[in-house]
Amino acid sequence: MTNSILLQENQVAISEREVEIVHLLSMGYNSKEIGEMLFISEHTVNTHRRNMVRKLDLKNSYQLIVWAFKEKILSF
Questions:
Q1: Alpha carbons 42 and 45: distance in angstroms, whole number
Q2: pLDDT of residue 25
Q3: 3-state class of 59 per DSSP?
Q4: Are 15 and 57 spatial neighbours (Cβ–Cβ below 8 Å)?
Q5: Which among 17, 58, 63, 64 has most CB atoms closer than 10 A?
Q6: DSSP labels, 23-67
Q7: What rounded mean pLDDT belongs to the chain?
Q8: Which residues does the chain have with pLDDT short of 70?
Q9: Which domains does the chain have, with CATH numbers?
Q10: pTM for this model (two decimals)
């Protein structure tokens, strides 16, 4: 079973791997670079991105990063 961060407000579970990907996205890395760093394919990174955007009812990865800062998953 994967560890996840459960957000009380909307009851959405975000996996640790997804948090890791959002963190790297916020640092400016693209899917290919993230895949190389995490030893997964670019396609897998894109799938995680799409899943998070869908789960959180967002429109794109930019909104995903903004959401992560608002929820204090990421910090400055």
A1: 5
A2: 97
A3: coil
A4: no
A5: 64
A6: HHHHTT--HHHHHHHHTS-HHHHHHHHHHHHHHTT-SSHHHHHHH
A7: 89
A8: 1-11
A9: 16-71 (1.10.10.10)
A10: 0.83
